Amino acid sequence: MASIFFGVLLSAYMTSMQEGSYEKMVDMVVKYYSGAMQVHHENYWESKSINDTFEESQDLNQLILANEEVDFVIPRLESFALASSEELTKGVMVVGTVPEPENRLTSLKNNVRQGSYLSDNDQGLLIGEGLADYLRLGINDTLVMISQGYHGISAAGKYPVRGIIKHASPELNKMIVYMELKNCQEFFSANNRLTSLVVNIKDNNELEKSLRKLRETLNSPYSIMSWQEMSPEMVQQIESDRAGGIIMKAVLYIVIGFGILGTIMMMIAERRREFGVMIAIGMQRYKLATILFYETLFIGMIGALSGLLISIPLLSFQAQNPIPLTGQAALVMEDYGFEPYMFFSTEPSVFWHQALTVFLITLVIALYPIFSANRMKLINALHA
Description:
The protein is an alpha+beta fold. 55% of the residues lie in helices and 21% in strands. It folds into two domains: 2-26 and 236-382, no CATH class; 43-219, no CATH class. The strands form three sheets. Strands 3-4-9-6-8-7 form a six-stranded mixed beta barrel, surrounded by four helices. It has a two-stranded antiparallel sheet with strand order 2-10. The chain has a two-stranded antiparallel sheet with strand order 13-14. Strand 7 (142-148) and strand 8 form a beta hairpin. Residues 250-376 form the ABC3 transporter permease C-terminal domain. Belongs to the ABC-4 integral membrane protein family. LolC/E subfamily.
């Protein structure tokens, strides 16, 4: 029973830690920038051109918000520009957005390290900390930007730095420039036009359902994409890591299986004389085999349930109190834009999958007592 108990506990702990890290990765992609879904012009994702934009429309917003799973939408205009400060120049990603809804998704206001967050109709900029360091910019310094606007119109402007943020993504931290949406539309001469509508939903578990409904609702020239479609490399990374985790759990299950089998074999060997006496006084072998089968199942059930009952509060506590990393491991995590913690998941599947798997292993091993009872030689058993 102890081997089954620890098998469920260890496999649940390993799975919870693995799934917790995946949830945090997805959380970073969804909440720090892309949102759960985005609406684009049907040609935009291939071209990434400011010419493949669509007109901002309240009717479109209302159509999306009519979906009960949708929480809110964020209009954005995104493109690239060349930014300079005195003799230093760098390519930047310019994001025009509405400050309050953007903060509701990405919590940008909490990441402001210097200066202040953008306000409505703000003429200033919010720039990444890495970009500010490279261009040697401080609060109220002027950033000059040039680019190509809508339909080839030249775009140029000078803007004060309103705030400096530390973005969760190290790459974006070196190149991101946030502008108030109307200000950005004026810079690119793309009045009332958007490259995307970021769609945030109330429950990420309802993503597929929401995506299916919105695809039925939205027609050409619009297209809608989930975060998985926009970040296939993240999905691939999670799937490959999950495959490695399956191999590790398979090894653990093999060890657990042999541990349970050894326990059952020892139990049968120690009681061989007892079984011989029972057969000798008239008990039929199939009845003895049935008793041993149910006895093994009962041991497996008690072990799996006890492992489940201990793992649920333990992992719930760990989910509320993630394990902090220190030293070099913490620095590596921060460099990749992750918080330096080991996170845990409390999804129901984390628990019942492990309990069910270990119980099924026990169910297979329970065939051994049946085989043993039917093949037992009575004379040898009585002299055991």
